[in-house]
Structure formats: structure tokens, C-alpha cells
Amino acid sequence: MNRRKLLSLLGMSPALLAGSRAEAQKTRTGKSAAPEEPKYQALNPKGTPPPVKLVPMAPRLDTIHGKTVYLVDTGFMGGGTLLQQMQAWFNQNMPDVTVVFRKKAGPYMEDDPPLWKEIKEKGNAAIMAIGH
Amino acid sequence: MITKAFKDLAILNAAKRGMPHERICFTPHPVWGKTPDELRVYVDGPDPVSGKPLMKEIVDALTVPLSDDEKKSGIVSVSVGPPTFTDTADNLQEFYLNNGYTDFLPIILPTQEKVDAMLKGTGHKPDEVVGKMAAGAYPAWSYTVRQVAASAVMAGCRPEYFPIVLAIASSGVASLFSSTNSFAFAMIINGPIRDKLEFNYGIGALGPFAQPNATIGRAWTLMSKNLGNGGIPGDTYLGSLGNNLNYNNVVIAENEDASPWPPFHVQRGFKKEENVVSLFRGLGVVPGQVARGSSANENVQFDYQMSDLFSTFTGFFGALIIADPLVAIRLKEQGYDTKEKLIAWLYKNTTQTVKDYKSRNYAYLFEYPQALQGREPFATWYKLPDDAVIPHFPRPESFNIVVTGGQTNAYPQAGNLSYGVSVSIDKWM
Amino acid sequence: MATRAFADLAKSNASKRGMPHIRAAFTPHPVWGKTAEQLRAYIDGNDPVSGKPLMKEIIDGLTVPLTAEDTKTGMMDVSVGPPVYGPDTLDNLQKHFLNNGMTDFLPVIIPTQEKVDAMLKGTSHKPDEVVGKMAAGAFAPWTYTVRQVAVNAVMAGCEPEYFPIVLAIASTGMAALGSSTTSFAYSMVINGPIRDQLNMNYGIGAMGPFAQPNATIGRAWTLLGKNLGNGGIAGDTYMGSQGNNTNYNNIVIAENEKESPWTPFHVQKGFKPEENVVSLFAGEDIRQGHGARGAGVLENPMFDDQISDMFRTLTSQFNALVICDPLTVKRLVEQGYDTKEKLMDWLWQNTKRTAKEYRDSAFVYTFHKPLAQRGIEPYATWYNCPEDTLIPWWPKPDDIALVVTGGQTNPFFQVGNLNYRVSVSIDKWM
């Protein structure tokens, strides 16, 4: 599913929201009911999703050259090694970019406010690696 | 930056958290198990989703100015569709199934009449907010008594079961968890309600032999889908292999009468006459009689047997021993006159080497980072030499014991499950 | 003479086998694990069911003359009730089916004539054709027709397109609710193009509640066992002390043939790739591989070692069914296991224990020792070799089955302690 379609999930079509994977399950069209067949009214079983507060994106860098980029390993297996390869790439291809490699504290689901503070103070950008 | 297996999840989750235009790049999947050279190829190569060279895409993402959409702020409400659906019974079954409201099995349609009947099973008002639930690190959905009733009806519950379903709903614990690991969930029911509702805690206790066991377990999964927005593959459910136990969850009504020990809820501080449901999460349940030490001798040593069974449990989750009353009686005869004594023995005698510990799943992912932060016992364990012997489970609290079964044979089962929470059912009557 | 836990079963089973007046005596339960003194007390004491002194009851049983009832011959009528229920409301019919032990205690699709007729269109076989016979244990089997299978398939929630698979399963006569005091688990593997025709799930959540065919075909197997095999009657045809949660839907595995570089399971069993086949398994359980040593930490996970590690708490009473995510398979292929057979061989060679450990196990004592005493190999050798000899877990590499399924979100695997029983053609039932 491309991003545009995925984004239509936000407040657009109830069917898509309820089952974004509905396309994987071929939808059979319901049989048209015989006139005497009784009809029932059933309740929508879904709970109430919270409204979404849009978060505007951080402004972009005018250029990456001369800037400090943090590479953040969140703790998923293999992510750290990948980022180390990326650091090598920067060193070879963009030596004027200062790359700082950091491992986030704690397991992957834990927040690390001191690291974000440091990145805000000392860095210009961050790339986080997520997933195995 | 994320691996391509989680593309939909990344985009959807960012959107749910207010960033539908978050700049995300993708690498091939997986990164785990790849050598540095193989990963360098990822870095040098294209993003498998967009086809663009990865590093160019990353630099662009950091430098190309924001679009107007990306600068937007404000609140977007999220719709779940109309409040009711009208059609023939057959068409409604198909519609609910296709809309992801079910577990793909037949449901009782939640008509107003059926939902009203269910609502009579509680003194709480239909519009009262029961709680909120997310099937992982997602924004939680909230739900009312009426919305819980719809899932309870669909599962096949009788109105008398409703307080238990409400109690589970109030915990906010989903029985379909997003993780790639395919978690399993269990509940223990204690108190006089077991007999009132005719729960099965005899022959076939964990299987399809009684309506409350079957339908209440199923309701938990339906709630997790409909009220917690769980179970959407690729979005809120990433379990690679899935888990059969998710259909009905492991429902354990404790056989309090036949047990020589105090019931589970009493150990948690409740009174015997209180009705309580306790929830567990982990990997699954396996039979204990197959382990080494399931002796050919007349003298079955269940304590050793269990200890051996746990060798392929991950210590990240606890151990829930599900003992047939015959096993419990036998253990009491062997000197374990309390559950605590058995737990103390098991904690001490179920051991592993540090080398083995480090090699088991979840130790590196979850416990090593904690060790680095100085949290015990992991901090100490990670400093010990490889051949040092440590407990298999981090603490005695990792163990729990419940008694159920029909005493046709002295078999235990054990779950690699951690205790989560106990909730009063009486509160929801 | 039986222990009291089996009083109902004993009488019921004798009755089914034509001996409703069999003379039976009962002891307290259990006998296993009791000392000689404790068992002598049983002998000296009373039959806990009748209250009479046991030995007197036994001697009377052997000597008191038979009554007219005892010597009766002829046929006994066994009724399962009327062929049709209703007309009645849907609600009342749901209650009726549930209260009469015809369900798994969850809502069913009421099998109206209309629905059953629609299901029957899913096969070319005639409604009255006998499909097979089934018993959930050592009982006299019940027989059933295509139509009777259809009723259960409707109840389970199957679509007519799934019916050939349900018929294929029914034709094996294998019930998914075994009578044993051990609470057995059951599994099926589906191969062939039918998986895609029916939209079976073999991706994310493969073994869980994520697709209608997986859910309903699995459930149908249990209903067949109850209604067509007379299984699942607690205390009578079902004695599983604690039960097994997997019995609700059974473990349904559609093999992910597309993402697997290995030979699909049915081809290993001699079928052509384009044939549609269902293969059935029965045994103890299924467990996750996360607990294996080596399962997590290394940059370089060795799945062969991990699977072997998991085997160490399996009983040799049942074989192994290893269920690998395609990512796990790809990794194994990189490590040199380019065929399933290579991995099966390695696992069989490298999972060993001492003969002493083997002989100590209860199941081995009960089931293998008699075989050893009859000179059957390899059990005879395993029972007679020196204690510290290392022997494999199972007689041959083929006792380890491998299937591939899953959504590749992570390289995981699960292991079932299950015996492969049979493969049947689904195409035959179309």
C-alpha cells in the first residue's frame, strides 16, 4: 500500500480504518436479500480512537555540509552495525559532516530525554535506526 | 530509518501520532544477522521502497525544505464509521468479518436487543467509560460499557459473564500484542463466580468444554481488535508466525476445592470470597510431563521435572505452573505445603550458566541495556564469568502457581508467562 | 477393575461395545505413584463408587450367577436424536446446539437446509456418500456421510470453497479431540495452489486468528471430532486431565511455499507441487523457539543449534514438527542447509542424550520398553546398550518434519512435539 492510500486511513473511510488489511481478504459482495428475508440492525463494535494532534516537521538544514549529524542506535539487533556502516559512508563521501554515533539508553522501547537534549544542543540532525 | 518489513507500521504509526508526513527512509530487511559488509551494501544501495539511493534520500530528507503539508498543525478526528449497520443476518456476518471486527469465526450479531440484554449483566451505566487499550506502543482507544457489551455479545457470552469481561476491559490489557514475537495471553479466574457460572475446572479445563471458559476467553481477543485496535497485520500486529492461543486465550478457572494450597487471588491479597480475574502475558503453554525426570519410577519428582521444563523458557517472561490437583497433592506430600515453598525451591534450583543466559532471546535486547543502567540482577549477571551459575529467572516473583484439572492423571502444564494484574470482578457486577 | 476416575468411561465404553451389564469394580485413584503399602490399603478397602468391600465385590463378580439381562443378545439401538430441529428461532437453535454438546461452546452458523445445500455445492461428491469413520480413541467408530460433514462445516463458519479440505480431513477418520488423559494437540499443514485460491494466511500471524479459512477449517476439525467421532465428552470419550487450548481451532499451517527455498511438505511426501494436500499431525503441544539457547543475542544466529536445543524438552513419544519463518529458512540456507533433508539429518545426528536419560523417561518406559522387549529396533538396542551411550532422540531423521510459514517480520521458529500421521489429497474431494 502506498503512502497516499495509507494516509487516507486518517478520518476518511471507516471501512479502511477498521480493517486496513481488508484488501488482503477478498471482499465478497453481500448477497442481495430476498424481500421477505428479515433485516437486523447491529451495533458498530469499535471503541473510540483518540483524536490526532498534528506535529509539524522540524525545519530542514540549508545544507548538510559542515553540520553535525547524530546516528542513534535504538537497540534493535543489527541496527548499530548498520549505522556504523553509515558512519563509514559519511567519512568517505562527506568528510565535512561530523557524525556522532550514539546508542540510546535502555531497551528499545525506553525514552532517553538526556540524549534528545544533547542532540538538540550539539547536533543539527539525527538519523534513528528502528527495527531489525 | 526503518527496515522495509515495517513500512506500513512506520507510516501508520507516525500518522496516528500526528506526523502523517514524517520523512522515513527504508533499508532492506532484516539487518539482524547480517555482517558489516552486507550492511555496507545496504548503505550504498537503494531504498527498496522508493528505489532511490539510500544516502541521497537521507541527505535530502534532512535538507530539502518542508512542504506546506509538513508544516501543518491542528487536530484531526478519527472516524470508526457509523454507529449501526443494517442488513440480513448473513450479510451482517460477512460484513463484520470483512471489516476486521471478528476473529474470522461466526459471531452472535450485536443487535440492540442482544446488547441491551448484555447490559443487564452489570449495574454500571452503558455510557460509563471503562478504560483504554492499545495493543502496543500506540495511542490508546477508549471505550464504554456499551462498546464492551458489543464485543461480549459477539463472542457468545451470556449476560452473567459480563462483569468478567468488563473487569478484563478495565485493565486495558490487550490479548493481541503488536510484537513480532507472537505473544500469548492467559487469565486465571478465582472466587465463587466460577461455580455460579459453571466454569470448567475439571477434565478438559483449558479446552473447549464450557461456555464461560470459551466465550470469555474469546471476548478478550475481540475486545483487543475492536476496542484496542489490535490485530491489524502489518499495522498493529506484527507477529511473524502468529499464535494459536490468541483465538480463545488460555482461560484457567482455578480448581480451588481440589487444591491443597490457597487460591491464586488470596496470594494476591484478595479474600477467598472475592471474585477476581488475573491476567498474564508471555509465549505459550507447554505440557510438563514430557520433560526429563518425568520419571519411569514410581516416584515422580514434579519439582525436578518442572525445573527441567523451564530450560527452554525465556527468563524474560515468568513461569506459570498449571498443576493438576493430583500434582499439587503429590507436591504437598513431598513437603511443599505452600506454593511459596515450591516457588522458593524452583527459583533456587532452576539455573543456567551466564553463557547460556546471554545467548537466550530477550537477554541482549531487554536486559543488557538494563544491565548498563545498573539495574539488578542483570548488572551483576553481565559482569560474571561465562561459566558462573545464575538463576534462570530473575526473581522468585517470576513464578506463579495455579491449580486446575480433572485428576485423571498427574500431569502439569507450564506457561512461559508473566503475571500482569488482578482485577476485581465484583466491582463490575 | 478400573480406578474410580474412569468409572463413567468404563461403563459407557462397555455399553457401546455391547456389554451394558459388564461386571466392574473400582479402586481409588490414582494407582500411579503409590507405594505398595498404599495399594494394599486399596485392596483391603472399599470400592469408592459402590461403597462395598473391594475384594468381596470382585469375588461376587466372578461367582454370583448371571441374570437374564447379563445373557441377552441381539442389537442395541443407539440414537443420536431426530434428523432435524425446529423450526425455531435462531437464538433457540443456538442454545439447543450448545446445550446438546454439539458445539465447542462458541456461536455456530445454524446449519439450515439452505446453508447445508450451499456447502454441498462445494464438492462433486454425493451427499449420501460415506466419507469415513472416526472414533476419538479406542471406541467403536461412528460413520458419516458428505452431508453430515457439511453440517459441521457450516457450523464452523466455513465457506463452500473450503469444503473439499474439510472432507479430506474427515476422510482420514482422525479426530481432533483424543480421549487420552494426556491432552493432545493437533495440527494440519495445507499445501498446493488452493492456499491462494482460498486466501489462506501464511504471512504475518500465520497460526493466529487472521483469516477465515485458517480459522474455520481448523475449528471444523474439532466439531467433526465431537459430532461425527463422538469425541469430546468429558469423562467418557475425553479424559484429558487439563485440556489443551489449541483444541478450539487446532494449529492450522498453510505453508509459505512462495517464500521458501525448500521443497514444500507435500512434495516431500510424494505429491506433485500442483496438487492440493492436507497433512495431519497429533501430539503434545507446540512451543516457541524464543527460549532456546542462542535464540537471541548473537549477530550471527545459528538456528540449527537453537532448534536442537528446543528438542531437548520434547518427549520421544512424539516426533518433531519444526515451523520456520521464511527468514529463518533463508538464514539456514546461507549456513548450508539448502534442503530440508540436510537440516533433518543434522538435527537428528546432533540431538542426543544418554541411554540412561532415555530409559528414565515415563513415556519411554510405558511405550518403548515393551517394543524393546520384543526385539524391535532401535528400541532393543537403546534399552540394552551401556548407560552412557549417546543415542538420538528419535529413530530416524524423517521423524523431524519441517514446514515454512510466516510473515518475515523476524527470523523466528516454533517447534511442535507432534507426530506426522497422514497426508490426503484435497483434490479428490472437489
Largest interface: B-C, 103 and 104 residues
The helix fraction of chain B, in percent, is 25-40%
| Annotation, overall tally of beta strands of chain B | 14
* Global outline of chain B: flat
Shape assignment of chain A:
elongated
Strand order of the largest sheet of chain B: 8-7-9-14-10-13
Instruction: Return Rg of chain A in Å.
Output: 24 Å
Explain how this protein is built.
The complex is a heterotrimer of chains A (132), B (429) and C (430). With 132 residues, chain A is of the alpha/beta class. Chain A has four helices and five strands; from the N terminus they run ααβββαβαβ. Chain A is elongated and about 75 Å long. Chain B has 429 residues and is α/β, with parallel strands linked by helices. In chain B, helix 12 (302-309) packs across helix 14. Chain B is flat and about 75 Å long. The radius of gyration of chain C is 24 Å and the shape is flat. Chain C contains 16 helices and twelve strands. With 430 residues, chain C is α/β, with parallel strands linked by helices. Chain C has helices spanning 7-16, 36-44, 54-63, 90-99, 113-120, 146-156, 163-172, 194-197, 212-227, 265-268, 303-311, 326-334, 340-350, 355-360, 362-373, 379-384, and strands spanning 2-3, 26-27, 130-134, 142-145, 185-191, 251-254, 277-288, 320-324, 352-354, 390-392, 400-404, 413-425. In chain C, a hairpin with a 7-residue loop joins strand 3 (130-134) and strand 4. In chain C, strands 6-5-7-12-8-11 form a six-stranded mixed sheet. Classes of the chains: A alpha/beta (132), B alpha/beta (429), C alpha/beta (430). At the B-C interface, helix 5, helix 10, strand 9, helix 15 and helix 16 of B face helix 4, helix 9, strand 7, helix 14 and helix 15 of C. Strand 2 (52-54) of chain A pairs antiparallel with strand 3 of chain B, so a sheet runs across the interface.
Topology:
The complex is a heterotrimer of chains A (132), B (429) and C (430).
Chain A lengths: L2 H5 L6 H5 L20 E5 L8 E3 L13 E6 L5 H15 L4 E6 L9 H10 L2 E5 L3
Parallel strand pairs in A: 3-4, 3-5
Chain B lengths: L1 E2 L3 H10 L9 E2 L8 H9 L9 H10 L4 H4 L2 E3 L7 E5 H10 L13 H8 L9 E5 L7 E4 H11 L6 H10 L12 E7 L2 H4 L14 H16 L23 E4 L10 H4 L8 E12 L14 H8 L9 E5 L1 H9 L5 H11 L1 E3 H6 L3 H10 L5 H4 L7 E3 L7 E5 L8 E13 L5
Chain C lengths: L1 E2 L3 H10 L9 E2 L8 H9 L9 H10 L26 H10 L13 H8 L9 E5 L7 E4 H11 L6 H10 L12 E7 L2 H4 L14 H16 L23 E4 L10 H4 L8 E12 L14 H9 L8 E5 L1 H9 L5 H11 L1 E3 H6 L1 H12 L5 H6 L5 E3 L7 E5 L8 E13 L5
Parallel strand pairs in C: 1-2, 5-6, 8-11
Antiparallel strand pairs in C: 3-4, 5-7, 7-12, 8-12, 9-10
Helix pairs in contact in C: 5-6, 6-7, 6-9, 7-9, 11-13
